[in-house]
Specification:
This protein is mainly β and 237 residues long. The chain is built from no helices and 19 strands. Helix content is 0%, strand content 54%.
Length: 237
């Protein structure tokens, strides 16, 4: 097993008034040559959007873009005709493909939104752009993995144009949970959304992350009640 640790305190950050992001990988004005990507995972931004805050309409192409909100509600609108509001328990995906214009805005003028925005390089380039979102039953991830993004029909998840899988889990103190790759040879970027865990002899706390490669399974133990996100991606084209 090969691992790389990204501590929460070592992330990049910004303050744009209405937007306060933390960056796990180089993005925008934040540059760190040691943190450009993990396999085909290119972007993981931990965003705080103040009430009334909005990303104006802007373009994307050839990227799989996943949004996972934790608090508040976010409005989305794009040039494919996709539109919706997502909140905690929901997951959204957009395949930018040949090119799409979209905007995102806090649905509230007063309450903040917190979310992860994640970009994964696509498997097939220049596909027709698409948008989808779904509400997931949070109780279905207690002490087990709930797959929310996957190209495999049997996972009953939102489809992604890549051999990648996103899974969420709420792990109670003292419980252990095994993760097994959906695709052999993939790596997993595991983020502690809340709480604390032990993995491979290391303790990780809130918003810490670990990249795991050269292993098709591993075990996580909660040293305090923990919420986890596992992003499984190919390590090379």
């Amino acid at each position: 097993m090969k691992t790389i640790i990204h501590k929460a305190a070592d992330r990049g950050s910004g303050d744009y008034g209405w937007l306060k992001p933390n960056y796990y990988f180089s993005f925008g004005e934040y540059r760190d040559s040691s943190k450009v990507h993990f396999g085909l995972l290119r972007v993981l931004n931990d965003d705080f959007i103040a009430g009334g805050g909005a990303f104006p309409t802007h373009p994307h192409d050839n990227m799989e873009i996943v949004t996972i909100p934790f608090t508040g509600a976010l409005k989305h609108k794009d040039s494919t005709g996709g539109a919706g509001v997502i909140k905690a328990g929901d997951v959204q995906i957009m395949s930018a493909g040949t090119g799409v214009q979209h905007s995102e805005a806090n649905a509230s003028s007063t309450d903040p939104v917190t979310l992860f925005q994640i970009w994964v390089f696509p498997k097939e380039r220049n596909i027709k752009p698409r948008y989808d979102q779904r509400s997931f039953d949070v109780s279905e991830r207690t002490n087990k993995w709930q797959t929310v993004i996957s190209p495999r029909e049997e996972d009953n998840a939102l489809w992604i144009n890549q051999d990648a899988r996103f899974s969420l889990a709420n792990l109670e103190t003292g419980k252990e949970l095994n993760y097994s790759n959906a695709f052999s040879g993939n790596g997993v970027y595991l983020v502690v959304i809340k709480g604390s865990i032990e993995i491979n002899g290391r303790q990780l706390d809130k918003r810490d992350a670990i990249g795991i490669s050269e292993a098709d399974n591993f075990v996580v133990k909660a040293s305090a009640d923990a919420e986890l996100l596992a992003i499984e991606v190919p390590m090379a084209d």
